Amino acid sequence: LAPLGNDMPLGFDYQSVSCPHLAQEIVRYAGQPVAFVVADSSAIAADAVWFNSEFNRRTFLEGSRDFLRRMPDGVAAHDLNAVEDKSAVIPPGFEPCQIERPSHQGPLRLGWVGRFEHDKRPDRFCELLEKLSERHFPFELVLLGPRDESHDILNQIRNSFGNQILFDGYAQDRNEYWRWLTRMDVVVSTADHEFFGIAVCEAISAGAIPLTPDGLSYTEYVPDELRYDTLDEAARIVDRLRDDLQRPSVWSHCRQRVSDYEASNVGVQIDKRLSETGE
Fold this sequence. Notes:
12 helices, globular, alpha/beta, two-stranded parallel sheet
């Protein structure tokens, strides 16, 4: 941010407000009046406001209210209770995998489907792999998703576990993407930030069992016993999932929990909400 004149307001959108710490830093840096702008005020002006998860909705409203408490002159101008009343959770939907899962015997296959960026915390993923290796858990890796090829953590994973990597790259088309999803036994997230998790849902549809942090949007569809608070706990879950006889029933439960998020089902929700909004 460049310093502005003392009489010039500063505005930013809801993505900043939904991260209260960032909002505080902006206010502290600016040292001047700040205009509260919610996606160009669209949430306030809209007839309906949709969020892709309850976590997204809750953090938006909590972050916005917290921010407005720091800006008392702006409270009256922004009716967040009205925004909450007209809000709804409509998941973005995902296309389920269309490729049959091949049979597999051998080490547990762990999958990564996120960006190699700081908010997805690939450093924690690498640390988990190191913990599994220290405990002599055999595993193989499928590493999907966009990345900077020079990323330090990615190269660290390649150096430490290169002989265990089955695929490492960005799938060139949907069929290749699905094909590698079907090779995963467990899809791992170590993210700090996730408002939904389409790629995790796609991996579940392809036969993978999710292993995620206990928080964010994951609490809405990942069973309690597959969410972790610490990496040691995550390692213990991976150990349990090495049981070939238990995995099918565990996966079936996970698959059921994301079935409503399939695009065909979400489309029905969207049509219904649009008709109600237009009445």
